[in-house]
């Protein structure tokens, strides 16, 4: 499933595409919201692994404006719950992800991204 926690780790891996290849841009994204149990320790622990600007920009692109542009120093429960929602409860079910650099299209169908590359695209 394409959740934003997963999306925040994905970059284009087409041969010679090594600049401006992250984050992949969503297009025609069909979103489904699915509640998951809030685990503040998990959310707090994942923060250092996130590319914050990419996460915020992607969330806004998908219509969620709950995250601040800058990572706050105070990680209160409201902030952690908003981050939990963005990372784990927004599911992209269908659509595509497109590399801003080489324009390669990664289709998403039934929540599963197809990240496979053709033989000539592998570096």
Automatic annotation (TrEMBL):
It comes from the Eukaryota. One of its GO terms (biological process) is tRNA methylation. GO terms for molecular function: protein heterodimerization activity. InterPro entries: Trm112, Trm112-like. PANTHER family: MULTIFUNCTIONAL METHYLTRANSFERASE SUBUNIT TRM112-LIKE PROTEIN, UPF0315 PROTEIN-RELATED. Interacts with TRM9. Belongs to the TRM112 family. This is Trm112p-domain-containing protein.
